[in-house]
Specification:
Layout: E1 6-7, E2 10-11, H1 12-17, E3 22-23, E4 27-30, H2 37-44, H3 59-75, E5 80-85, E6 91-98, E7 107-112, H4 122-138, E8 142-148, H5 152-160, E9 164-165, H6 167-173, E10 188-194
Helix pairs in contact: 2-3
């Protein structure tokens, strides 16, 4: 099997080919690629990643995190898309339905990797394309976004997307047995997104 990695009767390349490409007015949302590792690592290693567990500078941890994002496409059939600006190759962020095994339910997730891409409405534009596709693909009617209470930009985006605070999920997310609980960190707020379909 020269040049391919076996996976049952399909190859990893075949699986990647089944990840759709979505388009918006300004963005292409596509499968993760190895070339996305560098901007992803730069983001995780910066102070801008403070609300997603960063800065993370250990190369092995960064590689595993990126592999987790890509791997969930195989395990779940959905995960986060990488967005790039039309006419400008290279990823600017991740947008999609994120559902690690330890999460209580699927999460609508977003991150802009480069500060120069912030404040331009890319995240809202990407999520408006990704959310309907994700709800259909996963066959669910709602999803959460778990956001650090101090992350006002993400909280505004959740509200712009029509999400509302879920008080019971917020209480559960801040309990010591939650995967989101960190004793030395701020509380999180859980927003609830509902499918329009």
């Amino acid at each position: 099997m020269r040049g391919s990695a076996p996976f049952g009767d399909r190859t990893v390349r075949d699986l990647a080919d089944h990840i759709p490409t979505l388009e918006t007015r300004r963005l292409i949302l596509r499968a993760p690629r190895m070339t996305d590792m560098e901007p992803f690592a730069a983001f995780l290693g910066s102070e801008r990643a403070a609300f997603v567990g960063g800065p993370v500078t250990d190369n092995g941890t960064v590689i595993r995190a990126f592999g987790h994002i890509a791997g969930l496409w195989v395990l779940r059939g959905y995960s986060c898309f990488v967005a790039e600006k039309k006419g400008t190759p290279g990823g600017i962020g991740l947008f999609g339905l994120w559902y690690p095994v330890t999460w209580p339910e699927a999460e609508m997730s977003w991150s802009i990797w480069d500060a120069r891409a912030e404040g331009r409405g890319y995240a809202a534009e990407a999520m408006r394309a990704v959310m309907p596709w994700s709800f259909r693909r996963a066959g669910i009617a709602s999803a959460i976004s778990v956001i650090d209470a101090a992350n006002h930009a993400s909280r505004r985006l959740a509200e712009t997307l029509g999400a509302v605070i879920d008080a019971s999920a917020t209480l559960a997310a801040n309990s010591p047995d939650s995967p989101f609980f960190e004793a030395d960190e701020d509380h999180v707020v859980v927003y609830r997104h509902r499918s329009a379909a």
